[in-house]
Specification:
Helices cover 78% and strands 0% of the residues. The protein is an all-alpha fold.
Length: 211
């Protein structure tokens, strides 16, 4: 991490902002991008260097939310047709899509809010919100509020440690460890639901008649 900090310090401030903002946006498409670490490091550089914490937090929030809403919109237009035919039809059967839509109709707002705190999961939730045609008003608010809290908190954590990079590394390691556990639980639960829900709802457990 020290080498990465040194590399970032060697860049013009404007370019550092762009790297942080673009990373926060791209995370919505490529979950492997470590946007959380980038943002916390941006806060660290604000406290130990010349960056403005308001620009770091505000820019990453704006770009992250914009990226999530762009994914949502693309899925709103193209998601349902994708899952209606071809490979998509085998990933989620029609009755599974109906159940997914029912879940989002009932729990979409809190689910989208909580998903913004979990790396990887936050990239997937807007996809299904769009594919199930959730209204814009139910999507933008939870994503915007949760992202503001999360990225604002990361920048604040970076500021708090001052010039203590080891402490920031320890904080990030602990946070990522717990978020990794949460992500595994969510993925495992989703896999369990996918397997259990493959059977059509009108399928009968009864065997053939003995008549």
């Amino acid at each position: 991490m020290a080498r990465f900090i040194a590399w970032m310090n060697g860049l013009p401030d404007a370019l550092v902002y762009v790297v942080l903002w673009v990373g926060a946006a791209v995370e919505n498409v490529v979950p492997a991008v470590p946007a959380d670490s980038f943002v916390a490091l941006g806060g660290f550089l604000s406290g130990a260097g010349d960056l403005d914490a308001a620009w770091v937090a505000g820019g990453t929030w704006l770009f992250n939310v914009a990226g999530a809403l762009a994914v949502y919109r693309l899925s709103y237009v193209h998601g349902a047709p994708f899952f209606d035919r071809g490979i998509g039809r085998h990933l989620l059967l029609p009755h599974q899509m109906e159940r997914m839509a029912g879940f989002y109709d009932r729990w979409g707002t809190p689910a989208l809010f909580l998903s913004r705190f979990v790396p990887g999961v936050r990239a997937v939730a807007p996809v299904f919100a769009g594919a199930t045609h959730q209204p814009w008003s139910k999507v933008i608010l939870p994503i915007a509020v949760a992202s503001a809290l999360w990225y604002g908190g990361l920048v604040y954590a970076g500021l708090l440690v001052g010039s203590n990079l080891d402490r920031l590394s320890a904080i990030l390691a602990g946070v990522n460890r717990w978020l990794g556990i949460v992500a595994v639980v969510v993925v495992a639960g989703s896999a369990w639901w996918w397997i259990r829900s493959r059977r059509p709802p009108d399928a009968s457990d009864d065997g053939p008649d003995d008549e």
